[in-house]
Amino acid sequence: MTHDALAAADPQIAELVAAEERRQADTVKLIASENYVSKAVLEATGTVLTNKYSEGYAGKRYYEGQQVIDQIETVAVERAKALFGVEHANVQPYSGSPANLAIYLAFLQPGDTVMGMGLPFGGHLTHGWSVSATGKWFTPVRYGVRKDTGRVDMDEVRDLAREHRPKVIFCGGTAIPRTIDFPAFAEIAREVGAVLAADIAHIAGLIAGGAHPSPVGHADVISTTTHKTLRGPRGAMLMSTAEHAAAINKAVFPGLQGGPHNHTTAAIAVALKEASTDEFKAYAHQVVANAKALAEELASRGFDLVSGGTDNHLILMDLTPKGVGGKPAAQALDRAGLETNYNAVPYDTRKPFDPSGIRIGTPSVTSRGMGEAEMRQIGAWIDEVVTALAKESDVEETIARVHGEVSELTARFPAPGL
């Protein structure tokens, strides 16, 4: 993309933007929560819509001049409802955390009990973790995964729900490599009279493309970011049954935020239109196929995969058997052009800022058009870098060679939007 006006006004920032474009183009992006947006989504994000304040909702605003904005937001809402098959959608939340906070405001009072997956097991900060406002202002109950399988123990979830009677139960998270059993969570929520909130931020694109079961018909409210697998801008949505529409809308505005970011709303609308195509469905299924191929390659090379593999876009690896920590491994891989993030694994004995694992995912590489053959090559590169790091032998030489080979691969698969 050209940034002529930016370059003229602020050459320093323009050069940094250009540097980031080059970095993204030359990197195999394996961070599970990242993706590439299309040029159309990118263009919608950078429009004059950012100039307009629009507190309220379509037809009920607190500022004049909403003739166009109302139409844009209505299009986004209707596309979300059609794509996910929901009765109500709110496209105004600024990001995933504020969207989840709106659920608390809609259904809970301070001190009420909320139940979610613990952060070390793959949950999210806003599901009641101690350092989050959700863990400080509410009474959190946390479930985890079994040590022997790395999967959620639904019997434990039921026992905890019966004991603590939470008012809201969250399912979903940030490092869950297996299919979320929405019907089982819904059954438990109904039994204890809780609202079931499905956080599908990571898997929304897979759900939209038919590559993961949907929580619709099971969860009372659904929260999601609009980037990650959905390939939209940095924003969020809340979806629900018609019964909870008024409470959700009131919690978002005026409960938590003022005017929506209209340029983001437009970009969400574009992304939702793209997600309704056959091409997107093929992409969603290829994301899963690529993740399975990469997981199989890594497992064959002796990597310890949490839960033994993946059903979706995400792989979580415990590097303890390799004799390497997650943080130095992620840093070495980054220098080799393989972008990952270090991550805690279930029952991790190391500190969160220096954990045992790394988390990887396939949305971005799939958006570039890569397939199973490229996943096997990526798995081999990861093994080479981690092995060199563990042996403390020829580390920088290995990193330099792998980065050169990575650059050859990325040159063959141009990144969308860049």
Structure notes:
- The mean pLDDT is 97.
- A hairpin with a 2-residue loop joins β2 and β3.
- The protein folds into two domains: 43-275, Type I PLP-dependent aspartate aminotransferase-like (Major domain) (Aspartate Aminotransferase, domain 2); 285-412, Aspartate Aminotransferase, domain 1 (Alpha-Beta Complex).
- The protein has 418 residues and is of the alpha/beta class.
- The protein has helices at residues 4-9, 11-25, 39-45, 67-84, 96-107, 133-136, 154-164, 182-192, 204-208, 245-256, 262-275, 278-300, 326-335, 363-367, 372-391, 395-412; strands spanning 28-29, 56-57, 60-61, 88-90, 113-117, 139-143, 168-171, 195-199, 221-225, 236-240, 304-305, 314-318, 338-339, 341-343, 357-361.
- The strands form four sheets. It has a seven-stranded mixed sheet, sandwiched between helices. A four-stranded antiparallel sheet has the order 11-12-15-14, with helices on one face.
- α7 (154-164) packs parallel to α8, α13 crosses α15 and α15 packs antiparallel against α16.
- It is globular.
- It starts with a helix and ends in a 6-residue tail after the last helix.
- One of its GO terms (cellular component) is cytosol.
- InterPro entries: PyrdxlP-dep_Trfase (IPR015424), PyrdxlP-dep_Trfase_major (IPR015421), PyrdxlP-dep_Trfase_small (IPR015422), Ser_HO-MeTrfase (IPR001085), Ser_HO-MeTrfase-like (IPR049943), Ser_HO-MeTrfase_PLP_BS (IPR019798), SHMT-like_dom (IPR039429).
- It catalyses: (6R)-5,10-methylene-5,6,7,8-tetrahydrofolate + glycine + H2O = (6S)-5,6,7,8-tetrahydrofolate + L-serine.
- GO terms for molecular function: glycine hydroxymethyltransferase activity; methyltransferase activity; protein homodimerization activity; pyridoxal phosphate binding.
